[in-house]
Amino acid sequence: MRILLVLIYCILAFVIITIYKMMNQTSENNSYLDFYGETLDLRRDFEKADNQSLIIVITPTYYRLTQLPDMTRMANTLMHVKNLHWIVIEDGEKKNENIESLLKRSNISNSYFTFKTKPGYPKRGWYQRSMALTLLRRTEFNNTNAVVFFGDDDNSYDIRLFTEYIRNVKKLGMWAVGHAGGGIAANLNVVKGKVIDFDVSWGEWRKFGIDMAGFAIHLDFVLKTDAIFHGKICGRRTPETCLLEEMHFSRDDIEPFGYETNGAREIYRFFVCRVATQLLNRMI
């Protein structure tokens, strides 16, 4: 009898915890909708794209000494990519005039928003990327032929990353990235076109051992779920794995790019390291 009671208590506790997590997750999503009235309009972008996939680049940014140089470098790459819309989200309460001027000069189709990180969230753009996903899901689409890419402003990108890889993603595309996780490169281990695991210098335990700029998702699959970067409840899964698991992806869904042949391969994205600048930022 005691064993039965203990079992019942365990089941009830599990149910209560599960319901609490679901309510917490739902309220976290709804909080984005309750406090902001921003909207996206991508109709012209889809019209210009014709039958080609539109690339939607999401970039969180924040004020620092290297913000304008970083964003300038990224703009100088993106302005050479056709059929692209750049969503820039500032972690702050007001827009940066220098960034506004840069976006205007670049002639890149863009949307510039400000969403200050809420208390309890990491400072690495989780909240800003989540806001961008929420904006996309609030947008009415007549055409969903687009690919979503999370491009951080402290990276350098080869134009071919966009034209050869991202543009051709049908579901979940991934590729090797340079200077990721403290190593020379983060690679996919691909066998017969399938990703079996990840060759990384940190976080081997992750289901998706990839850097933020090492994958892209077709818009159809972004719109099918309400998955975001849950800064408060993600735990050790890291933002990349956190999002992809919330979207119900498995490794079988991955489309590896750049692994069509054996041997040496080119890397189209690098993280730009600035230890000296980081120290200087702390001093001022």
What can you see in these coordinates?
With 284 residues, the chain is of the alpha/beta class. The protein has one domain: Spore Coat Polysaccharide Biosynthesis Protein SpsA, Chain A (Alpha-Beta Complex), CATH 3.90.550. The chain contains nine helices and twelve strands. A seven-stranded mixed sheet has the order 3-2-1-4-10-6-11. The chain has a three-stranded antiparallel sheet with strand order 7-8-9, with no helix packed on it. A hairpin with a 2-residue loop joins strand 8 and strand 9. The chain starts with a helix and ends with a helix.
What distinguishing features does this structure have?
Spore Coat Polysaccharide Biosynthesis Protein SpsA, Chain A, 12 strands, alpha/beta
Classify the fold: give the CATH topology: Spore Coat Polysaccharide Biosynthesis Protein SpsA, Chain A
| The CATH H-level homologous superfamily | Spore Coat Polysaccharide Biosynthesis Protein SpsA, Chain A
**CA-based shape:** globular
Mind telling me the CATH class? Alpha Beta
The pLDDT mean sits at: 81
Count the DSSP helices.
Answer: 9
The CATH architecture: Alpha-Beta Complex
Number of strands: 12
* Integer count of domains: 1
Structural class: alpha/beta
Radius of gyration: 20 Å
Strand ordering within the main sheet: 3-2-1-4-10-6-11
Largest sheet: 7 strands, mixed
Question: What portion of residues is helical?
Answer: 25-40%
Distance between the termini: 67 Å
Low-pLDDT windows of residues: 19-35
- Range of strand content: 15-25%
The helix/strand series, from N terminus to C terminus, equals HHEHEHEHEEHEEEEEHHEEH
